[in-house]
Design a protein that fits this description.
Layout (H helix, E strand, L loop, with lengths): L2 H13 L3 H17 L3 H28 L20 H7 L3 H4 L3 E5 L6 H14 L4 E5 H13 L3 H9 L3 E7 L6 H14 L4 E6 L6 H4 L3 H12 L2 E5 L5 H17 L1
Parallel strand pairs: 1-4, 1-5, 2-3, 3-4
Helix pairs in contact: 1-2, 2-3, 7-8, 7-9, 9-11
Pfam families: IstB_IS21
Protein name: IS21-like element helper ATPase IstB
Family: Belongs to the IS21/IS1162 putative ATP-binding protein family.
Length: about 260
């Protein structure tokens, strides 16, 4: 390929918004020569590589704006430490059929069992599949919506919780809510109903949500919409954090001995 043609292609690629093609053109040409590719095979190679680069860029951008606390995957989850948890149920969720159906997923259990890890892993998988995601705690939702309501910007702020295809709501039940606060949460749940997926984690059983939301009727209304299309996974095993803390204490004791 002549230098003139290479320069012209690079300029055209830049105008088309294909910076990677402009950078990797020589590499593509060498691969085509080595494999003795035909014209159509070469075009297929270039388009496939550009699509992969664009998907990876979108994925990394999606993760950056998602507010996820980390980017752990299910491969990082130690299912052997939770023998009562059926890995197949979690891996079924990882197919993202519930996201496609705009349904929900709930992960219940005591602190430290890995609920947030699984929720994040599902969100990462959804992001890689092209879905927009956003992570928040229930307390942050309430605090932000109360602030927005006081400033006359409630509708705008609600939009930030309604736009993502997948909204991850962490730590439902750690702090009881007042009725006005619970009503703000109800608005999020009801407006997302059958329009987008929610992945939530909670240390409370659903029968305890009346106490969490300060009103049995309102809690029932929230659960009615949330659970209509929802996969529920309960994790009732030991705490990872406690295990790691105890291991650290034992190491310190052995070092001091």
């Amino acid at each position: 390929m002549s230098e003139l043609v290479s320069t012209r292609i690079r300029n055209t690629a830049g105008k088309l918004g294909l910076p990677h093609l402009a950078e990797a053109l020589t590499q593509y040409a060498q691969r085509a020569d080595e494999a003795k590719m035909g014209y159509l095979d070469f075009i297929d190679l270039v388009l496939s590589e550009e699509l992969a680069v664009r998907d990876d860029r979108r994925f990394r951008t999606g993760l950056r704006i998602s507010k996820l606390p980390h980017h752990k995957t299910l491969d990082d989850y130690d299912f052997s430490f939770q023998p009562e948890l059926d890995p197949r149920k979690v891996k079924d969720l990882a197919t993202l059929s519930f996201v496609e159906a705009k349904a929900n997923a709930a992960l219940l259990g005591p602190p430290g069992v890995g609920k947030t890890h699984i929720a994040v892993a599902l969100a990462v998988a959804a992001c890689r599949a092209g879905y927009s995601i956003y992570f928040t705690s229930l307390d942050d939702i309430v605090r932000n919506l109360k602030t927005a309501e006081a400033a006359g910007r409630l509708t705008s702020k609600l939009g930030s919780y309604l736009r993502p295809a997948v909204l991850v709501v962490d730590e439902v039940g750690y702090q009881p809510l007042e009725r006005a606060e619970a009503n703000l949460v109800f608005q999020v749940i009801s407006k997302r109903y059958e329009k987008g997926s929610i992945i939530l984690t909670s240390n409370k059983t659903f029968s305890e949500w009346g106490q969490v939301f300060g009103d049995e009727v309102l809690a029932t209304a929230i659960l009615d919409r949330l659970l209509h299309h929802c996969d529920v996974i309960s994790i009732n095993g030991p705490s990872y954090r406690l295990k790691n803390r105890l291991a650290a204490i034992e190491r310190d004791q052995e070092s001091a001995a």
